[in-house]
Structures are given as C-alpha cells and as structure tokens.
Amino acid sequence: MDQHADPVDNVDWSTFSFGLNGVETDYMWCDTVVSDGKAFAPFRATNDCLVPMGKLQLSPAATVLNYGQGLFEGLKAVRRKDGSISIFRPELNADRMSSGAERFFLPVVPPNVFLTAVDAVVRANAKWVPPFSCGALYLRPLLMGTGAALGVKPSMEATFCIYASPVGNYFKGDLKAIQLQAVKGYSRAAPGGSGAVKAIGNYASAFRAQYTVKQNGFDEVLCLDALTGEAIEEAGASNFFAVFSNKTIVTPGLETETILPGVTRRSIMDIAKNECGFEIVEGRLTLSDLANASEAFCCGTGACITPVGYVSILDRQADGTDKESSVIVFGDGGTGKITRQLYKLLTEIQNGNDDRLSEKYKEWLHIVKP
Ligand SMILES: *Cc1c(COP(=O)(O)O)cnc(C)c1O
Fold first, then answer.
1. Cα separation of 127 and 231, whole Å?
2. Atom of ligand 1 nearest to the CA of 261
3. Could you tell me the pTM of the whole model?
C-alpha cells in the first residue's frame, strides 16, 4: 500500500470541535511492561501493540488511579494538500514524555518507540484523518503506572497507550479573541512541583477556577505564579505571549519549572524571530508589564494560536468574596495584527500550504509513511 486511506465518507468534519465528536476510531496502541525489581522490560515497537480501540482493564489499586502516577501528551496529524499525512514535531513530544517519566519514576518510552507507535496509530486510523484543512487527527499518548500497590510507591508495571480522535479546526472562520480572568490566590504549579511536566494530576485542580471564570463570562482562567500572584504563567492548558510595541515579544520563562514547555510555544518563538524580526524575551511577565502590551495570545496544540482580547483580575476581598479589581485591554480587544500574522505562518507550516515555508521548516514536519 503506497497511499493512506481516504477520509471516511459522509462525515461532516466541519461540525467537529476539540473533543471526541461521537466517533470511535479503529485502533489504539497499548503496551505494558513490568519490572523485575531492578529494571523494566523495554517497551516494544512491534505491531502487536496495535489493538482494536476499546476499554482498558485496571486494578483499582493501580498507582495511576491512587497516586496520579501518569503522564499524557497531545499531538496532531493532518492531511496535506498532496494527500500525505504529517505530524508536527513529534520528537519534541517524545522528549517531553521522557523527561516526565524520569520525574514520575516511570520507565522511559524511547523516542524511536514513541515515534513508531504514533506512526502506527495514524496509519491504522488514517481514514479518520480529516480532509485537507478540515481539522486533524488528535493523538493522545498516555504513560502510567498500572501495577497494583497499596503503599505510596512507584508501580512495578507501566502501560504506554495511544488513542486518537478526529478534531475540527478550533476556529471555524476568522480568529476570535477570547477573554481571560485571573483568580488571585489560585495557582496551578509551585516551584519544585510538577508544573513543567504534562502530569495527569496537574489539571483537575484547575476545574473549580475554570468553572468560576466561565460563570463570570470568561473563556479561560489565567494562571498567576504561586509565590507572588503578580506574574503570569499560563492560560488554562496553553502558553501565554504578550506583544509590545518595541518589536519585543515576552513569554513567561521556563526557569521556575512551573510552566509547561509547549511545542507550539517553542515554534512560535522561532517563527516570530526568524520570519518577523521580533526580539523574544523569556522571563517574568507581571500584570503591570502586561498593561503596556499591545497584543496578547495563548498557544498550544489544541487551539494553535488564540488571540486574547482582555484580561480581568479577580481579587479576594477581606470578607472572603471575590471582586474584579482591574481589567487590561489589548488594542481594541479584538485580534491583533502580529497575532494574526503568527497564526497564518504557523498554520501554513503545519498544513504544508506554502512551498517556501514548507521547505524552510521541513525538519518540523514528520511525514507518516503509508
Ligand atoms: C499541553 C500544554 C501546553 C501546550 O503545549 P503544546 O506542546 O504546545 O501543545 C501548555 N500548557 C499546559 C499546561 C499544557 O498542558
């Protein structure tokens, strides 16, 4: 077979959001390894790990369920104009999962095994990769401790699994700015913690703050640093950027280890520098710095680049209630010019839509062989 399967007929891909979309793809990857007390057996890179999509069986004593010994990743496969299928910089996801595994005392999935598995899942589910420019097949790798243990200690058994789901384009038409709200007193990560790891336990603790800001009419919560509550860290599960009028772009730095090192973040830094001549500053970005920004946006694999129209700050009052203490508006509160330009550049590189950019950034695209 020298061509990927065509997309499934009679599917209205344009209705798909970032979700499961009521679709069950055909195959998932699943491999379980055990430790003899000294070392784990290696993860396999053979097609017996490709199994029909279905449920996992776990002991209720699995360490992932009891102690959150688990990691996830997120990446997208897209169908290009020429019918090929590409994945954006999967090597970086493989490396990130390796460093997370070290931190969480899980066996490392060697990057070549990770890439073989990702390719196999895309190939086996190729009919679920949407047509050109109609979305992507989102891949969700998981690495978790699945051995049973009552004591608080790492598992002797680990499972590496990848499932897939077709998702729609985040923006159906034009880019639309979102509104963020920061909640003073809420933070997602502290120095010394695991904020820099895509650890499963880092996310549910944000649900309450997320619910609160949505009730207040905002789209997503803006996370402030745990120590001072004055510096911006991230927006929901995406990285944050501010554009200043002196051709500078600032994004919170990774040195505090409280920020997830996003693949999209890193790519945008390169594009803004090389294609648009911006100076990129990675470092502390306080709310008062932000007041001088001309544009802001957040980014991640899910939504690519999302313009931010304004940021509201919710402050805890002496009587225990929360009150909006200030609002920062960027430009006219809509999509900024630089944000739009970066969005266009990044999506064209990802979709292989522009020949010059495709050639220049070809190492960023991993082509899945049929
Ligand atoms: C996944 C994630 C991001 C974005 O990372 P990408 O590699 O660009 O998808 C940013 N912040 C958090 C907290 C995340 O979990």
1. 44
2. 5
3. 0.96
